[in-house]
Every structure is written in structure tokens, then in C-alpha cells.
Amino acid sequence: MSTLAELKSRGTALLENKLVAYFLIGGVASVIDVGLFLLLHEVFEIRALVAHSISIPVSALYSFICNAFFNFRTVDKLFRRAASFAIVVGLGYLLGAGVIAIVESQTSLGGSVGKIISLPLVFAFQFYVNSRISFRSST
Fold first, then answer.
1. C-alpha dihedral sign at 28, 110, 124, 76
2. Do 134 and 88 touch, CB atoms closer than 8 A?
3. Where are the domains of the chain?
4. Of 25, 49, 66, 81, which one has the greatest count of Cβ atoms within 10 A?
5. Under a CB-based contact definition with an 8 Å cutoff, are residues 114 and 102 in contact?
């Protein structure tokens, strides 16, 4: 049986894993992104790609701040890191928009399902690029 100290140690080690932390931060960012997207698209009936264009920057700002300060702890050269992150978000935006457009035009599933389908692809792409460029340690 594990002791409380061992469990706490394992929990701390898990949270210190950058991929796990990126996934947790990304999960919250995805909830912000998808929640805002669905609110705009389903409730206010804003076109899917317009709603996507609003929800992505809001969730990206949250993600950048959390990853820079809490996950990767790389707050030096913040402007350069933010610019790099913005480029990666832009590329992820295009990837997501492409998936949404394909799902809307080629299936009867609609923009909301396209948005959900795009999330794992965008997550994997952005983690790979951000961990190697935007949040790479300066030392």
C-alpha cells in the first residue's frame, strides 16, 4: 500500500511532466475554445469559421500565459516567445479551419463536429512545435 507521501510525490512528478501539464492546460484551453465556439455558433448562430476565429485567440491567450509561467517556466524573452506561440496558434488555426471546412462541406456532421474532430490534430501539432520552439529553454 502506498503511503500518502508516496502518492504526493507521484502526483508532483506527474504534474512536473511537461506533456501532462501541457495536456491539462490544453484541456482547459479546449473547454474555453469549444465552449465559446458552441456559444457563438449554436446559440448566437455565428458561422462556424467566424466563431472559430474568435474562440481560438481567447483560448490561446490563456494557454500561452499558463504554459509560459507555470508549465515550461520560460518567461525570459516573453515577446519573442509570444510571437512564436502566435505563429504556431495561427498554423493550428488553419489546420482546425481546414478540418471544419472539410467536415462541413463533405459530410452532414456540421461545423461543431468538425471543431471537435480537429482538436487532437491541432493539440499534437502545437505541442510538438511549441515545446521545441516557443518554450525551449534559453540555457
1. negative
2. yes
3. 18-134
4. 81
5. yes
Residue with grid cell 489546420, as numbered in its chain: 95
What φ, ψ does residue 97 adopt, rounded to 5°?
Answer: -60, -40
Task: Look up residue 82 and give its amino acid.
Answer: A
CB 64 within 8 A of CB 98: no
pLDDT, one tens digit for every residue, the chain (139 residues): 567 777 667 666 655 688 888 889 999 999 999 999 999 999 999 999 999 899 999 999 999 999 999 998 888 999 999 999 999 999 999 999 999 999 999 999 988 999 999 999 998 999 899 889 988 887 6
Residue with cell 511549441: 130
3-state helix, strand, coil in the chain (%, to 5): 85, 0, 15
3-state SS track over 83-122: HHHHHHHHHHHHHHHHHHHHHHHHCCCCHHHHHHHHHHHH
**C-alpha cell read off for 98:** 481546414
Name residue, grid cell 461543431: 112
Cell numbers placing 3: 503511503
Give the Cβ contact number of residue 125 at 10 Å.
15
